Sequence to fold (116 residues):
Amino acid sequence: MPTLFNPQDENSLMLFRYTSSPVAEFTASDFSLIQKISTKRNAEFGVTGQLEFDGTRFFQEIEGGVAPIALLVGVILSDPRHRDISVEAFQRIEMRSHAAFVTGGLSEQRKPGDTG
Ligand SMILES: Cc1cc2nc3c(=O)[nH]c(=O)nc-3n(C[C@H](O)[C@H](O)[C@H](O)COP(=O)(O)O)c2cc1C
Fold:
């Protein structure tokens, strides 16, 4: 993707936060792929925040420059792997609350039925 913006621009920061549900056929390996792609892309875009998945709902918060956040909002909202998206925040912010983009959830969680 061509660079349309400067990821180092800290002058106009935005926050986007939502929750959503995976589609029925969503698997742990789908989530691993999303973790990998989002970690790489968000770092390139200077986007920080977190993505959590508890097996039922996604919780995501991303923060960064207006241009990368606006682009990601469009990409994420149109991703067919989740539904029932409930936007909780999409607003300008004065400063970031995350130092990096981190993801967590199913892949490193104990699965139901695990013993010991
Ligand atoms: C719940 C959820 C959260 C996602 N979060 C991000 C994200 O933070 N950053 C990102 O680049 N892609 C994220 N994605 C993946 C994008 O929707 C998209 O598949 C990815 O950026 C690759 O896009 P491309 O196929 O246009 O390269 C997320 C997808 C889902 C389902």
